[in-house]
Amino acid sequence: MDKEKLIKNLEIIEKHLERNEKWFQNPEKKMVAFDKEMTLWNNRFMKNIQEIENWMKEFEKRMEG
What we know:
The protein has helices spanning 3-19, 21-64. By secondary structure, the chain is mostly helical.
């Protein structure tokens, strides 16, 4: 392959990638937002689970005593 042709093709690819850079970064931004949302959901879920476990421990104490 001719060097000039190769350089020209690489320049075309570079231009295309620069133009579409936002498209390539979009999945990363969505993953960050998804991860943040899932962390909040998990924190709420774990808090609810802890409340249920505490209630069950209290119930067991009352049933034994």
